[in-house]
Amino acid sequence: VQLVESGGGLMQPGGSLRLSCEASTSIFGIYDMGWYRRRAPGKQRELVASIGANGKIAYADSVKGRFTISRDNAKRTVYLQMNSLKPDDTAVYYCQCIDIGAWGQGTQVTVSS
Known about the structure:
Elements lengths: L2 E4 L2 E3 L5 E7 L9 E6 L7 E6 L5 E3 L7 E6 L4 E6 L8 E7 L4 E2 L3 E5 L2
């Protein structure tokens, strides 16, 4: 499975961005998917949000109420809507096919005035 993220960029605090992650597999709908981020080189990736094949959703405490994960199985895509962005959200964001451990290449999100 190949995963390709898009939608990152530079945003001012309080702004919004939507990340997308398209998967190459036609059986995307059976996989649990997650968004992770790495805030600095050498630091571990941390789970931001996950969405199961059954639609079950979980968020890190730091993004609850601000970020929304969703998926469109017909488009083989998982999304991360990020609102009320803070400088602490600055990171490289990765999507993962949790069941098989496949990662995308990452997309940079920078929140700065």
